[in-house]
Amino acid sequence: MYKKSVGVTKVPVIDLAATGRNITKLRAKAGISVRDLQTVMGFTNPQAIYKWQNGYCLPSIDNLVILAAVLGTTVDDILVYEEESSEDIANQIDMMSRWQRMNIQLNRISAQH
């Protein structure tokens, strides 16, 4: 497999769990409840906010910008990064590619039966 060098030895990776804890901390520090944030974000229910806080997913880029403004901070202050070597990232991509190929093969076999 051909691996292209990304030109860096370390690449930033967003830590979902730590970012979620950070969102919770920043929200509480700003004195904003989940319901208040729900209203400001225009959500019909607070599920997305709880998913962010529990580290299940990240806000979309536009919601992240709104969140930063509401919390009186910056997007960079909300996100928590860790660094992984570019080799580790390349290995993860390679493993995902292999898994996808296996999944395609299994789907083809299942379709034949």
Quick summary:
The chain is mostly helical and 113 residues long. The protein has helices at residues 16-29, 34-41, 47-53, 61-71, 75-78, 86-112; strands spanning 10-14, 81-85. The protein folds into 2 domains: 13-82, Orthogonal Bundle (434 Repressor (Amino-terminal Domain)), CATH 1.10.260.40; 85-113.
Low-confidence stretches: none
Radius of gyration: 19 Å
**Individual helix count:** 6
Please give the domain count: 2
Q: Kindly report the CATH topology of the largest domain.
A: 434 Repressor (Amino-terminal Domain)
Going by CATH, the homologous superfamily of the largest domain would be lambda repressor-like DNA-binding domains
What is the terminal-to-terminal distance?
32 Å
Helix % is 55-70%
Count of strand segments: 2
* Broad shape: elongated
* H and E string: EHHHHHEH
For the record, the CATH class of the largest domain is Mainly Alpha
- The CATH architecture of the largest domain would be Orthogonal Bundle
Major beta sheet, strand line-up: 1-2
| Main sheet properties | 2 strands, antiparallel
Topology (elements, then pairings):
Layout: E1 10-14, H1 16-29, H2 34-41, H3 47-53, H4 61-71, H5 75-78, E2 81-85, H6 86-112
Antiparallel strand pairs: 1-2
Describe the structure.
- The chain is built from six helices and two strands.
- It is mainly α and 113 residues long.
- The chain folds into two domains: 13-82, 434 Repressor (Amino-terminal Domain) (Orthogonal Bundle); 85-113.
- The protein has helices spanning 16-29, 34-41, 47-53, 61-71, 75-78, 86-112; strands at 10-14, 81-85.
- It has a two-stranded antiparallel sheet.
